[in-house]
């Protein structure tokens, strides 16, 4: 089919052609970036924790003085261990997808010249490492004498386990065992590596990553109290948590139970990613609405042009054009308009992505989203124009030539 007559016809309808092309360009830019955002959110929601989520819950209490910490810990732990079905009860300062009390910036040298990043230090008492379900894949496991009492915010020194993702970041290509990192003047020596341990806020942006965490063994005390890790069979964990909440009122009536923070780890994960799910659904709605508006615009314009060209269509039919020729004419015309819009839309997609990168710290838009968006819009354009094109192809030559 000759393209030149189609381009000549489009030049006679510059404004309408331009408006549809701009609509398609906007749709292309929004479609590519919205799909990218949805994919990012879905990927973030699938982050693995590295812990035995289905079997874990946390109990959070507050409202007590530091001088009461040892007594509160003893009463709560005894009460938890007395509940039927509890396999383990221990003190853990930070909770995956929940409370975080160990986010710090670390250095890889004592002089503080080499910044390692923002990491999460999980401080846990005896039994917490086993309850989390972490396994040492290199180095040695923690021993009883690694759990030392401390008085400040963190232990002044400790033998720690580090997540592999963090060790690969701090010492790429080197053996991390025996390496030391610093938090201010406090030093921590890596004695073992665990496969993975997610930070409480895995979607935290900036100089951090979801697996940048380490486990610091410590004896519970004034600065490590009120946050408890409970382990039970997955089928029992919900009932065990309910009993634990009731237990607090009996064994520690002077403490305040944090109802919102005391959840199973699975529920904490669901709550943590609730906003991501809402955003993904909203973006899907935006995409559907935008594509619907774009399709209606194409249908409206094509229908208008068919009505305007009835006489021309009839003449072409009378001189030998088949229905297939008329159908291909409108489909080719639409393909050219959509292609022009897509070309502009790709530039707009990158511009929009640059704005999102600047203001929301999003990653760069991968190139493969552009052909995916183009194919989607080409398919949409062909489907949208199909109805008007079929009506044009069905115009009888005699009716067309007699029309005003």
Automatic annotation (TrEMBL):
UniProt keyword annotation of Cytoplasm present: no
How is it placed in the membrane, per its record? Answer: Multi-pass membrane protein
TM spans (from-to): 15-39, 278-306, 335-356, 368-386
Q: Name one GO cellular component term.
A: plasma membrane
Q: Which GO terms describe its molecular function?
A: transmembrane transporter activity
Boundaries of every ABC3 transporter permease C-terminal domain copy: 286-395
**Cell compartments where the protein resides:** Cell membrane
Where is it chiefly localized?
membrane
Supply the alphabetized keyword list.
Answer: Cell membrane, Membrane, Transmembrane, Transmembrane helix
Q: Which family does it belong to?
A: Belongs to the ABC-4 integral membrane protein family.
Q: What is this protein called?
A: Putative ABC transport system permease protein
Organism the protein comes from? Dyella marensis
